[in-house]
User: Fold these one by one.
Assistant:
Number 1:
Amino acid sequence: MRNSTPWWIRVPLLFFTIFALMEYFIDSGDQPAFIAYPMTQYFLLLVLLLLIAIELILKSIENVMFQTLSEEAKARYLASKSKRWEWTWGRELYQKLLGSRPIEEEGEIILDHDYDGIKELDNRLPPWWIYLFYITIAFGAVYLVRFHILNDYDQAEEYQQEMVAARMAIEEYKKTAKDLVDVNTVELLTESSDLKAGEAIFSGNCAVCHMIDGGGGIGPNLTDDYWVLGGGIRNIFQTISEGGRAGKGMVAWKTNLKPLEMAQVASYIMTLHGTTPANPKAPEGEIWMDPNAPVDEVEVQVDSTGVEVLMETDTPNPLEGE
Ligand code: HEC
């Protein structure tokens, strides 16, 4: 029976051809099909099992036919098989790399000392080991020229590059994992889809007490500069999540709203700042100023009535436009 390629080449070759064809024909976006559709993994497993089954059947047919041969034909068949290129080539390569002398020739390399019956052979160093040694020398030479003579790049640059890549990966991740925000990580969302969602949450849950335009009713006015519990995205998020002072009517929304939803509605509230509602409620609380806002100029005026501190900031409010 003739089969030119051995099974350990044939099976992987067929398997990966089918794999590649599958990836080519199944449109799975930017993910490979076998990840996007876990079903395909079963398909591949089936293909693999089928290929193995076919090989096993071929083997047993070969075996049955072999038994029907005469003794002389059997011998010829075995001889031709052991002469196949991959066998001879593999065996020779293995012998070469090992570099050991056959047992019959050991007499030539035996050393003439004898430790309580333990004798030593003067084998050559195994060629695989020597080649490895040469490779390390070549590597060292290339390394020396590249990094110490041509100064390709150094550890600091490599570190910077990896940090940039990591930061980009984090940004990417944040886009898909907005729901992981908490009061420490919450940031003002500016995408219109987020603000739209925030508006919907506000009109559905909050407008009864804060009015649809944020002008205030049972709850305080959300459009002015005065805040009972502190302004800015973090304080607002905190208030929505944990609720207001006991007995005032502002409940903790964290049981009803997801973190992302709280961030969206908090960002939406920030957009209400400075608008003019129909029936604004009188200010409650105190003027809130962002302690982290960069201050460019501080002017202190002292007169008989008291001290006035004027601070000028250069940072435009992202919600008001420049
Ligand atoms: C049952 C009425 C009620 C509802 C509904 C309500 N609030 Fe309030 N809200 C209040 C009251 C009352 C306060 C004042 C709490 C205090 O003084 O401690 C308040 C305070 C706040 C504050 C802080 C205002 C400040 O001056 O510090 C924010 C922000 C806020 N609410 C957002 C929301 C959001 C967002 C929703 C919807 C998810 C909502 N509220 C739903 C009654 C309500």
Note: The pocket of heme C is lined by residues 202, 205-206, 208-210, 218-220, 222, 227-229, 236, 239-240, 244-245, 248-250, 253, 265, 269, 285 (CB under 6 Å).
Number 2:
Amino acid sequence: MALISYLRSWALIGALLLAIICVSGGLLALRRPSMADWPRLETQSGDGFGVWFYGTSSLAFVDRDGAFVLDGFVSRPSIGRIIFSRIRADDTLVRRTFSSSGVGSVYAVLTAHSHYDHAMDAAAVVRQFGGEVWGTASTAKIASAEGVAHRLVSAGDVLQAGGFTVRVFGNGHSPGGIAMDDIGDDFQVPAKVKDYRYGGGLGLHLTRDRCRIMVIPSSGMPDRDLAAYPADVIFLSIAQLGRQDADYVRRYYDATVKASGARLVVPIHWDDFTRPLAKPLVPLPYMVERTDKAMRYIMAIKDDDVQVRLSVVGSALQLPAPCNG
Ligand SMILES: [Zn+2]
């Protein structure tokens, strides 16, 4: 009897220890790296040309006449909503967010690919500010379901959006992507997250006067030699980059930053997009992403004359001449 109760108490202690290990392991996995020590871009308040960042790969290029938007994903539904409900754009939030960036009218919203964290709000931006949604056939299905104007865009196209010239090229998805096929003909909004399927990826090179900006929205390879698209600034996805080996990161860096000749690298798509933009951007937890490693990789690879600066939200970014001042 004494032996049984002795063994029972050890089993209890063992179970307790296991529970503690599981819980603390879980909590550890939910911790996030800090981005606080990496240098950030300055902001500017001029009323001329301004570039605004909204987390993920969402950017607005705004001048006095209108705006060209990439993705424009600002609704950022919570993890609970993603898992348990169908999602749709928050039109009020879209209106407020872009209005506070000085956007009065929009020429076009280019959707980099049709996963929800790129494509979900594009139609709402057009509904609120005019213009049309640009993107792949999958993006066109979203725009049709939302009842807004759209234009099919393919790699190699050169498009005009007011004073902005936009060259589009193919941009592979970051490794490990899910839902990598096309959106179905029966797509409707509100939609489940899994209904927003990849549909092919696009990157862009944008010029305005002498300013040349490249955006790589996803951490996959471009479909062409980007030496043909010289840029002053590159907005570079680092999504899932910390989970790749050094050889992949080197090839990615060479094919994007080095090929474009950009001297300013602005990492994008590193933030936890299940948190609202009203809160400070934080990286995804360690269990999902290794943003800290991705940043260290880039800093180790970059040439001495290349600066790496994180983007801020809520103000126009101070970019080097000839893009600003
Ligand atoms: Zn994606």
Note: The pocket of zinc ion is lined by residues 113, 115, 173, 177 (CB under 6 Å).
